[in-house]
Amino acid sequence: MFRYVLRKLVNILLSLFVLATATFFLMKAIPGDPFMQEKNVPAAVRENLIKYYGFDKPLWHQYLIYLKNLLNLDLGMSMRQQYQSVVDIITRSFKYSLQLGVVAIIVSVVVGVAIGLIAALYNRKLIDRLIMLAATVGIAVPNFVLATLGQYYFANKLRWFHVAGLHGPMDYVLPTLALSVLPIAFIARLTRSTMIEVLAADYIRTAKAKGLGSLTILIRHALRNGLLPVVSYVGPMTANIITGSVVVESIFGIAGLGKFFTDSVSNRDYTLIMGITLFYAAILMASRFITDIAYAIIDPRIKISKKGG
Amino acid sequence: MKAKLTLLLVSIVASVAVLAGCGNDNSGGAGQEFRMNLGAEPPTLDPALMQDQVSSTVMSGLFEGLTRMENGEAVNAMAEDIAVSEDGLKYTVKIRQDAKWSNGDAVTAHDFEYSWKRTLDPNLNPPAPYAYQLYYIKGAEEYNTNAGGTVDQVGVKATDDLTLEIELKNPTPYFKSLLSFYTYYPVNKAVVSANPAWAAEADTYVSNGPFKLSSWAHSDSIDLVPFEDYYDRDSIKLEKVHFVMISDASTESNMYETDELDWSGKPTGSIPVEQLAQLIQDKNPELVSQPQASTYYYNFNNSKKPFNNAKVRKALSMAIDRQAIVDKVSKGNEVPAFAFVPPGIHGVTKDFRDEITTEYFTENADEAKKLLAEGLAEEGMTAMPEFELSYNEGGVHQPVAEAIADMWNKNLGITVKTQTVEWKVFLQNRTSLAYDVARAGWGADYNDPMTYIDMWITGGGNNDTGFSNAEYDALVKEAYSTQDQQARVDAMAKAEQILIGDNMAIMPIFYSSVNTLVKPHVKNVGIDYKGDIDYTRAYIEK
Amino acid sequence: MQPANVESHKGSIDPSKFAKLEKKSNDVVESAPKSRSAGQEILYRLYTNSWAMVSLGILVVIVFFAIFGPHMTAHNYYSNNLDAQNQGPSGDHWFGTDSLGRDIWARAWKGAQISLTIGLVAALADLLIGVLMGGMMGYFGGKVDEILNRFSEVLYAIPYLLVVILVSVVLGSNMWTIILAMTITGWINMSWIVRGQIMQLKNQEYVLAARSMGAGGFHIVLRHLIPNSLGPIIVTLTLSVPSAIFAEAFLSFLGLGVQSPAASWGVMINDAMETWKYYPWQLLFPAGLLTITMLAFNVFGDGLRDAFDPKMKV
């Protein structure tokens, strides 16, 4: 197991290196630079800036410099936010995204699995149809519509919540809803779909015949086998949600990572783009690694550390 | 059994849904507090590195230059007296004795000299993008651009603690108002030279204006409180200025409506387009609207066929209905534009636009059709090729482009493709003349027609149309060389005639306006000709 | 990180695809014996599922209007009429007009053409690539899994905005570049879900049995593993169509979506977020049509899956 983890870690580092390389050349390939504005600065001033940031050097040279800094764990300074280091910006904004994200993930998984289960238990009954109807609407209505409407009615008209900001526990309600409606709907559908199959499977019937209680069957046998697709989805979803959603952060005025990431691209803030990309990728890869381990725990027949097939 | 299970699951769902407690306090601004939206985190609060309106909105409370603008006039601020030489080239400034920094130091002439030279330093860390705002000073450009100038040759010198001598390159009638501009702010020499990143956080920040920086929660909010040793402390009534950073217009609008903001809209916020139209229609008393010296126009690519032909450009410009665009599309109290210099810019004694009333062109669809045919014939073409009208995402750009494309289609029978382009790609395309027709906008840097005229000289840094006219260049030079305001205005009016009347190098569409929602209890907030806000003398009256 | 509403899982519900899979799913080892031919059996089960039939009817109606709707009214979808802005639904403008006075009926059905094409094609591409890659990762495991896994993760983590901007600059904006930009990363979620399913299924008795009888890898994947993963695949697909539709609207801000005056549902809904407070029909019609279409797709998709799998008859 230790060797397995070590090998995975090396692979992840290798992938991060590939990603850094690809992103570096990709962002240099697209038009624009950090200094372009509606009003152009004079050519000579521009030259000063280009020289200062080393953009006058050949691309491979810039790349080597970037790699060298990366090996020294130096992500550099933001080119847009003066005197702010990339690490500071990520730390600061990740804090907001993480706080909100964790709440949203818990809500999504718990509610999604629960209503998915109810729907599966009442397969094709009215309650199942209603839940699936709601879930489809939840998937078809995008989060920016939900967030905007929710903010207008609940914060502006009814004044139940603050319009924006994350300053108290109540401030989490609307952004959490906006973030979790789609995952809830999706997880509910996924759970229902696999649970229906699992509940009809022979071993569940056998367990029932043996006289085991419903709850025991549900938790010990059915959920175990039925949750695998949910686990596959939750891995990358976790990475996406805790690193922030630009829509929800813009609408609810949250200084999270998602908005910084989008802004960094439109500002061509190269150092920040790279920093957030690598940070996100590390979280993504870690969460998928944990997903793989979760597979093995849920279903011991799945062997992750040995060659399969 | 199923029922029991369901009950269990339902209660889990319910308990998660209920989440935390309840209750919500929408505390209005307590006492003398003014709250507005910056729309975004200011990229910097260091005078040397500033180049945007978000930063300058915060900085106008924190810093003060030698002069400050009051009702459109430059009045002495850090300066006690400004003496100008006969030829308009030499300024001798006496600094007021009671001027203080927020750390207790006295503001000296050395701070100004240090600040300006620091901004001009080509090796500043990082270099200052707006350094060229100081190019009026003799030797400044040569030093900043490494063109053989040294720091000692820059025409600014502190002869003693309270005397600053400034030498200009050309006589500049509006230099006193330039002295209020943020690139001309001083910085505390001792603090800044000891800590280059002094402007990164609130606790190392030192300023000289009516307010000081009490907190800066990055990307979230900024708070200013009055600076007790400010020389004009008695005029400062606000006890707190609270800035939030909300990028979404409907969020800002909701915050204003729930009394979480006292001010919404320009300069740094925004009112949703349709909501603004409703407010104007309803004559909402909280809506304040005034002209802004800013022109919204389309660039023609003067270097590309058939847009290289003046008749084609004129035809396009004459074939749209500007009144319909401002009334029914942009819907924000804009004014149709038939020239380039907007109202609000000084001429000789009055507004430039009131003095120069020449009609450069009139809208006329039939005439336009004829001109287009003539122009195309001159270029050896039989029909107008399908072309692209590009704009970036945001504001009213898309509806305006769609409306204009439709007008061109109906009035000239031509096909126009409207295309959204990603912001920096758009800028790159515009600068490298890789477009047919592109949206553009220009706001004043200072209150003189020159800020609109000198950008179109051959090879000018912001001339992204390919327009080049020797006579035009000569007129700009002529206006630069004299102090005589009448002669300057005449030369610039002639230049505008060449730019619009003769060549239609660009297509003016409308002059913008500043629309803001202001709570009735907010008094004495000023908006200047270019739409910048002055909240320093504001107060709350409930 | 996926920007804006592109927290996406793309794919499509394409009946023909399932028709192919359906034949293969018969020899999945299972309890229910059959009398009629498999194809007839499935059609019969589908036909007797009234929910599925109603959904199919709705889809047919929507496709009908998407094709003929824009021509049913005297107004076209692109002409401005600044004297008839923001009008409510009326005998002249059945769905009202937008802020430039364009007819929303014509625009909504024109939008249906565009959005449904993009949604379905992008989703189909994601389905094919996703199932293939996921199948390979899950079945072969080991090195193949490791390499494809890393590859998909790197691709998933590359800033999507940069990819979109590059595609728009290099290839320009048309229907195919839009779909290309969506497919580059769109298949990944599907592949991860399929991978997880197959990792679980491949150790089950019937697969081991098939293998011991000498069945080849692709045979096992195609005939046993993927048919038994249909549930999660279909659910993932149901998410794919709307997310492709909204991704298109998001891409249009970056210069890669459908450009005005053409409309798509995503863009219409986006634009309506400016005006819905005053002119709610501008949001209601495109959003309502989209939701109804998605509901019909989902119910029909469920019906299809039930029809394939007789185990479902609990």
From TrEMBL, chain A:
Keyword Transport: yes
Chief location bin: membrane
Lineage of producing organism: Bacteria, Bacillati, Bacillota, Bacilli, Bacillales
Protein's recorded name: Oligopeptide transport system permease protein
Membrane topology category: Multi-pass membrane protein
Family: Belongs to the binding-protein-dependent transport system permease family.
GO BP annotation list: transmembrane transport
Annotated ABC transmembrane type-1 domain residues: 94-291
TrEMBL record, chain B:
CDD domains per record: PBP2_OppA (cd08504)
Source superkingdom: Bacteria
Domain Solute-binding protein family span(s) in chain numbering: 74-463
Statement: the UniProt record of this protein carries the keyword Signal: yes
GO biological process terms on file: peptide transport
GO molecular function, one term: peptide transmembrane transporter activity
Protein name: Oligopeptide transport system substrate-binding protein
Automatic annotation (TrEMBL), chain C:
Chief place where the protein resides: membrane
Transmembrane in keyword set: yes
Record has Membrane as a keyword: yes
Domain ABC transmembrane type-1 per the UniProt entry, residue ranges: 112-301
Subcellular locations according to the entry: Cell membrane
One Pfam family here: OppC_N
Residues spanning the signal sequence: none
Stated name of the protein: Oligopeptide transport system permease protein
Organism: Paenibacillus phyllosphaerae
